[in-house]
Amino acid sequence: DLNAANSAPARHMTTAVCSQMADDNTEKQASAEEDRSEKTVSSPGDTENQVLSKRQRKKLMKQQKWEEEREQRKQRRKERKQQRRLQRQSHQEGGEVQSARKRARREATPSSLRLVVDCSFDSLMLIKDVHKLHKQIQRCYAENRRASHPVQFYLTSLGGQLRQSMDEKDKGWVNWKDIHIQTEHYTEVVSQEELVYLTSDSPNVLTELDPRKAYVIGGLVDHNHHKGVTFERAKELGISHAQLPLSSFVKMNSRKVLAVNHVFEIILAYLEKGSWQEAFFTVLPQRKGVVAVGWDATNPPKKDDETDSDSDSDPEATAQTEGRA
Ligand SMILES: C[S@@+](CC[C@H](N)C(=O)[O-])C[C@H]1O[C@@H](n2cnc3c(N)ncnc32)[C@H](O)[C@@H]1O
User: Fold this and answer.
1) 280-305 confidence digits (pLDDT tens)
2) What percent helix, strand, coil does the chain show, rounded to 5?
3) Burial (Cβ within 10 Å: 0-12, 13-18, ≥19) of residue 187
4) How far apart are CA 2 and CA 212, in angstroms?
5) Are 252 and 321 in contact, with CB atoms under 8 Å apart?
6) What amino acid positions are annotated as catalytic residues?
7) Are residues 193 and 302 in the same domain?
């Protein structure tokens, strides 16, 4: 009823309601303000700010790290430079050494003398001695390659344990140069009258070397267990034999049975120097008490004092001679 609504009590009520509504509105406005101010923290724009500042923080930290590591980087650069310089140097030096070796080979005058290492005693050796023989043969090969008068190097009767050791421990042997490696026995390779077996048990003493001959060294590391075996073999086959003239030139405090590489190197040294005595002094280890015949054993020549010719050799290569001292 409209009239009733416009009556005084009704008007009063309306005013009261309105004022109540106004109050309500003020409260709502305030809380909306509050809401808005709260929302500014979590509004999408602010979230972006937070992500950005995270990025910035990261960037800043990265920059700081970069600054801190500046010294380290400098140091690393220095080291790399130094390394490159060293590499260049060693390359150059290596090249020089190599070309010096090549030069030495080119300047070498090969001898026609044949030196045979007879590997037919394989079954007489234990595997540890086969390994020692292998090393002695490697040494012979290396010495012949750098010799001023390299010999015609033969390895005969190669097979069995020695061949296995070579295949397992030094596959590169198949590329060895200036060497005749044969499975055949030396009597099938060289005619009998050209052969001279070198053996310490022979009564014949070598005075000089004949470049037309083939000298045979027994490929054996036996610690004297097979005494005289090569001498007996040479006699059986009717082959000439001889011992090195050790007693004529040097006195030794050990037996005169030498290791394969020592005999090989003495021949090379004799071809170079033309003197047995010099060859013995150059090759034989000082500990064998080598002194020249006619010298006081307590006062050996200066050269021998200074040169332990064995000092750079493979220690195992000399084990054979050590066992006999
Ligand atoms: C370790 S020896 C072997 C010893 C072995 N019992 C033998 O009957 O020949 C290795 C080889 O070097 C040679 N050899 C060692 N001493 C020698 C010497 N004084 N004169 C000549 N040849 C020698 C021999 O050919 C010998 O077979």
Assistant:
1) 989 987 656 677 666 544 444 433 33
2) 60, 10, 30
3) middle
4) 152
5) no
6) 222
7) yes
Check pLDDT > 50 for residue 244: yes
Residue 120 sits in the same domain as residue 84? no
| Residues of the domain holding 212 | 113-322
Q: Which residues line ligand 1 (CB under 6 A)?
A: 198-200, 217-218, 220, 222, 226-230, 243-244, 246, 256-260, 263, 320
Q: Which atom of ligand 1 is nearest to the CA of 225?
A: 6
Name the domain count of the chain: 2
Burial of residue 198 (number of CB atoms within 10 Å: 0-12, 13-18, 19+)? buried
pTM of the predicted protein model: 0.66
Asked if residue 97 and residue 211 are part of one domain, the reply reads no
Tokens of 211: 């470049």
Residue of 253, 250, 262, 247 whose CA lies nearest to 301? 250
Contact 155, 119 (CB under 8 A): yes
pLDDT, mean of residues 10-28? 45
Judge if 125 and 184 occupy the same domain. Answer: yes
Check whether residue 179 and residue 202 sit in a common domain.
yes
Which ligand 1 atom lies nearest to the CA of residue 221?
Answer: 1
Task: Determine how many CB atoms are found less than 10 A away from the CB of residue 271.
Answer: 21
In a domain, 30, yes or no: no
Are residues 80 and 191 located together in one domain of the fold? no
Query: Closest ligand 1 atom to the C-alpha of 226?
Result: 6
Distance 218 CA to ligand 1 centre (A): 6
The CATH number given to whatever domain includes residue 208 is: 3.40.1280.30
Question: Has residue 232 been placed in a domain?
Answer: yes
Tokens for 201, please give them: 């048990």
Residue 294 token pair: 């006619």
